[in-house]
Amino acid sequence: MTGNERRQEILHLLSAGERAISGKELAEQLNVSRQIIVQDIALLRANGTDILSTRTGYLIPQQRSAARVFKVFHSDEEVEKELALIVDLGGIVTDVFVYHKAYGILRADMNIRSRLDIRNLAEDIRSGKSTPLKNITSGFHYHTVIAENKHILDLIQTALEENHFLAELRDYEPVDFWEKAQNREGKETD
To answer: What would the mean pLDDT of 6-32 be, rounded to a whole number?
Structure first.
């Protein structure tokens, strides 16, 4: 199998699945090393393919028709509640990012789709593996959320607002978050 054929097979496997596939699993299926898979993923991304890296592996996001960036603020104890509000209403939290005055935008992929994903993240935080990214900016952070349509995003926004999680955008913050979300997802934003 040539490199191009292998990359096409990776695309097929990631597109066909409903779940993330680990680099190790892809390597075993394609009879190559995990490092080759990492290089192939990098080449596919360089050629414009949207491949998310999650805690459980790689995946190609399902097509959604709407995306929105929310600026939020809450305590560490409220992380699960905030994320549950979003996924329970049909949203997928694709990332978390902060705007640091010295470092600029610092972003991490999340791909939170379910309460199980939330529970796994919360366990990692409780176990001390890491702390929430929001802590480097005193609790203020942003999530890109994708959903089937704008109505769902409106419901999510209302729920976040009612629970006092939404934060006001400041003058010094970049104002092109909406466009970045659109470019990242390749879909409509508002």
So the answer is: 88
| Helix or strand run (H / E) with residue 21 | none
Closest C-alpha among 106, 98, 81, 180 to residue 140: 98
Residue with tokens 């997928």: 92
- Are 99 and 174 in contact, with CB atoms under 8 Å apart? yes
Q: Which two tokens stand for residue 182?
A: 């659109």
User: Quick one: which of 7, 37, 16, 15 has its CA closest to 25?
Assistant: 37
Contact, 23 vs 57, CB < 8 A? Answer: yes
pTM: 0.62
Q: Of how many residues is the chain composed?
A: 190
Q: What would you measure as the largest C-alpha separation in the chain, in angstroms?
A: 55
d(CA 79, CA 14): 29
